[in-house]
Amino acid sequence: MTIRLQKTNLASSWEMTTSNDTWILTKNARIETSGMPGVYEANGIENSNIRILGDVKASGGGTYAVSFHDDSSSVYVGKASHIDGRAAFAGVAMNGGGTEVVNHGLVQGGTIGVYGTAWGSVENHGTITGDTGVYFGDGGFEVVNHGLIRGGDYNAIGGELAGSSIINEKGGVLRSLHEITIELTGAGAGTIENHGLIKAPSGAIIDGIGDIEIINTGRISGNVYMSDGNDTFDNRKGSMSGTVFGGDDGDTYYIGKSPVKIVEAVSEGYDYALSTVSYKLTANLESLQLLGKKDIDATGEQNANRLIGNSGDNVIRGLGGSDYIAGGAGRDALIGGSEGDTFHFAEKGGRDTIIDFEDHIDKIRIDGVISQSGFDDLEISDVKGGALIEYQGGEIFVKGMHAADFSWMDDFTI
Ligand SMILES: [Ca+2]
Ligand SMILES: [Ca+2]
Ligand SMILES: [Ca+2]
Ligand SMILES: [Ca+2]
User: Fold this and answer.
1) 302: CA distance to ligand 3 center in Å?
2) Using CA atoms, how far apart are residues 102 and 124, in angstroms rounded to an integer?
């Protein structure tokens, strides 16, 4: 490996003409070109390690300030450096897969700040701007942002979802001035982790038909559109000021202290909420599970829901629809609401209370009681205010019922 230095100013392209070498544009050197790239790798050259410590400026619609052609090359942009492609197509353009940009300075493109024709990675500690900030043509790319990536008329980050990962670290800002901040397209699965700020005038994140996983421990300001696919939105440690639209298929929401507004339409799949705080299902979410061991409450919506308590003392309300309710461990209060509900009890069920048991309409299901003979073995007795069912591992106080009211056929199910 040879180290090649460029220490003086150039008014023509600086060309990488050998593979596997390190090319350094030193701190006070400046390259300025018109109609041709400022820095570029010649055809067939690969594995170049390009370090830009000075400034590069290129102008001309189709060109780039810095471009390289083949796999496994990388560009490092120093803290004091300015790669100015504002009057060109891109600040940095990468052709081929496995390419890498590490930016500590300022990279600007007219159309795209950092442009990958295939897949690669961008690690940004400085600022990247363009009409689109960072764009990759293929999936499988990675962006890790500690600085600012800003889009103008288009996205801050755009590309294919499949196999891609975007991590916005603490202190990092992703924003678009006029468009959706992150736009991922196509099928497959990919992830966005936000520990910083994602800000948007029109929408923060949109993905297409694929399965996106969004983990937010920072702040998202703007709507999130997860569209088709089995998507996940985890907001347990973050905050969110827009609305999350789940779109079609089965979506999963992790809910924490900070409230999230969720929109699911009728017939948009079987959707799950898992919550560490008391939570009421938004319309058209189907399942709610309480997490942790705190004494928190779960409330369903007007349709059939699956409602699962945690190990604390929970109040669980099904509301309308035929709900399936399981309090789990702890002393739970269970309220089925209208229509026929099923109350499910398992081992270590604690002492639960069914507040509104409707004889012949609601059903009790106890793990291990799978036939009439098992039912006959249950201890059912009259106590003050209702009936007490004792089973292996717990007790159920059924308010307003008498022991004689219970029959295997009408009140139990397996
Ligand atoms: Ca979806
Ligand atoms: Ca649904
Ligand atoms: Ca319900
Ligand atoms: Ca419980």
Assistant:
1) 5
2) 6
Looking at all shown ligands, the one closest to residue 249's CA atom is 1
Rounded CA Rg of the chain: 30
Q: What are phi and psi of 213, to 5 degrees?
A: -115, 120
CA of 209, nearest ligand number: 1
Which residue(s) pair with 275 in the sheet?
A: 255, 290
CA of 281 to the centre of ligand 2 (A): 11
Q: Which ligand is closest to the CA of 230, given by its number?
A: 1
Task: List pLDDT tens digits, range 327-374.
Answer: 999 999 999 999 999 999 998 878 999 999 999 999 999 998 999 999
CA of 312 to the centre of ligand 4 (A): 5
- The DSSP secondary-structure symbol of 96 reads S
Asked if residue 238 lies in contact with residue 254, where contact means CB atoms within 8 angstroms, the answer is no
Distance CA 242, CA 157 (A): 19
pLDDT > 90? residue 80: yes
CA distances from 206 to 13, 132, 158, 179, 243 (A): 38, 15, 10, 11, 12
Ligand 1 midpoint to CA 124 (Å): 30
- What is residue 414's DSSP assignment? -
Helix (H, G, I), strand (E, B) or coil at 218: coil
Closest CA to 83 of 107, 67, 60: 107
- The secondary structure of the chain in percent helix, strand, coil, rounded to multiples of 5, reads 5, 50, 50
Quote the pTM value.
0.95
Cα–Cα distance for residue pair 19/31, rounded to 1 Å: 21
Task: Give 86's contacts (C-beta < 8 A, 6+ positions apart).
Answer: 108, 109, 110
Is residue 397 a contact partner of residue 351, using CB atoms and an 8 Å limit? Answer: yes
